[in-house]
Amino acid sequence: MPIISNRPPLDEQAARARAAGANVIELRVDLIGNITAVERFLNGPRMTPCILTVRSAAEGGAWDGPDDERIALIERLGLLMPGYVDVELVTFQRSANLRQKLGLIAELNGGASAAHAIGARSKAENALAEPTTRRARNRLILSVHDVHATPSDIAGVMNRFPGSPALIHKGSFVARDGCDALRILIELERRARQQPTILIGMGEAGVATRILARKFGAFLSFAAFDNESESAPGQLAPATMRGLYRWDSIDGHTAVYGIVGWPVGHSKSPLVHNAGMAANGVNGVYLPWPVAPDYEAFARFMDTLADSPQLGLRGLSVTIPHKENAFRWLSERGANMSEPARRCGAVNTLSLSDGQWRGDNTDAQALAEMIALASWAGPGEKPRTILVLGSGGIARAAIATAQPLAERLVIANRTESRAAALAAEFACESVAWSARTDVSPDVVIQCTSLGMHPRSDESPLPPDALLPNSTVIETVYAPPRTRLLQDAAARGCRTVSGVDLFIAQAERQFELWQGQSPPQGLFAQLLNGQAPAPR
Q1: Is 323 a catalytic residue?
Q2: Fewer C-beta neighbours within 10 Å, C or N terminus of the chain?
């Protein structure tokens, strides 16, 4: 549901929103400011029902004037509807004036059960189409907001609604991480079966709540008018919701996948996995799940998932910094892990089937493929020296994979104690970060975050430390041509990009989860901008 705010003309915005697939449009009058333009729009022909909202500053809006003026404005504009009127529960409870005015412009009772039973149309369309003989034309949305956090007791906050005359109950909270998003979805799934409900997590961590609203029976979800005009943090454009995340195909049976990391907003995994499922006819959706870096946050997120089978999770990609956390979490529960995952001591792929978790490391599989493709001395010959830069989960996969292939394996990391610990664990060699340029490796496997967007001007090695005819394997894929790869090419090195590695590991993940391969070349085409986004 796109939100029209402060960019006239309103009728043009409404037409564009309808063309993008909006069933309902929210008029954020507190953001628009031009009341005359709003009245002109409401008096004109309208093909899409509207939600009238004059949000107070106390609950994240822009209205900071007197309550009586706001209530008078709601009444004045509400008489020009039909549609919906959204007011804060706290204002409704404290203001007899507001309750009296809403009695003039909105139905304060009835219709909830019929509005909740939908067929092919949206819940909002069915609710509005309900026949009525009453004078009042609008339906009431009562809402609660927290612009700082997600309440520790979401159910307790939402339980303030029973006995209220609202058709729809709405909660909108800032989700600080993926665990907040899970808690919001759990409450939505429970509540929406009895009462038309909107529950949204604001912010980047709340994206999953906006997409999975359809799976769990929310009355509606909110979208930004476009990518530059969100009226609440984390809103997506309709094109993103319907294209990348395939909103129109989501139903109660949709399987849930995603990527866990901190951060995850840059990840291309949603693009490729959603496209692969669309191409292969899989009823699934792949979402970002930001989880704070510490093990406690990761364990809290995973424990919540493990206790919530109703969410329909089937698989997770694991990225920086949680690959070792995933290995620890699975180990503590005695879960199954593949031999590459055990050898690496890191997991980048989690699968859930029949209540049983499994951990895999497709990074290791992909690295083995990339190393096998890279030619250095000649057929059957081992490289003399492989240098691994980094000490995180991908570095562990690189070390475990490369160790049997080299005469000498050297680890260097900016935190030198971590490199020394890894060297002791894998029975290889470590050097100080300052000494990495003296190693003279035949193969470099770059596993740090150096060179990753937005710090793409950085490189973990100066150009003169790269030997001509050596092989450089990059794990960073955004940007696709890092400074290291550019320097390596200029020095006459063979290069393997992070994009190539990412595609290989993502294809292995897809096969693990779906039991089938994605269309050949699809992931590469998407990452090179040659294939359409999923629809």
Answers
A1: yes
A2: C
Categorise residue 52: left if φ over 0, alpha if ψ from -120 to 50, beta otherwise.
beta
From the list 101, 123, 215, 323, the catalytic residue is: 323
Handedness of CA 333, 334, 338, 339 (dihedral sign): positive
Burial 176-192 (b: 16+ CB within 10 A, else e): bbbbbbbbbbbbbbebb
pTM here is 0.89
Output the DSSP codes for 393-434. HHHHHHHHHHGGG-SEEEEE-SSHHHHHHHHHHHT-EEE-GG
**For residues 513 and 259, what is the distance between their CA atoms, to the nearest angstrom?**
13
Q: 3-class secondary structure for 175-206?
A: CCCHHHHHHHHHHHHHHCCCCCEEEEEECHHH
Cα 504 to Cα 269, 355, 453, 497, 521: the distances in Å are 12, 28, 21, 11, 11
pLDDT digits (tens, 9 = 90+) for 449-507: 999 888 899 999 999 999 998 999 999 998 999 999 999 999 999 999 999 999 999 99
- Structural domains of the chain, ranges and CATH numbers in brackets: 3-252 (3.20.20.70), 258-360+517-527 (3.40.50.10860), 374-496 (3.40.50.720)
Cis peptide before 379 (omega within 30 of 0): no
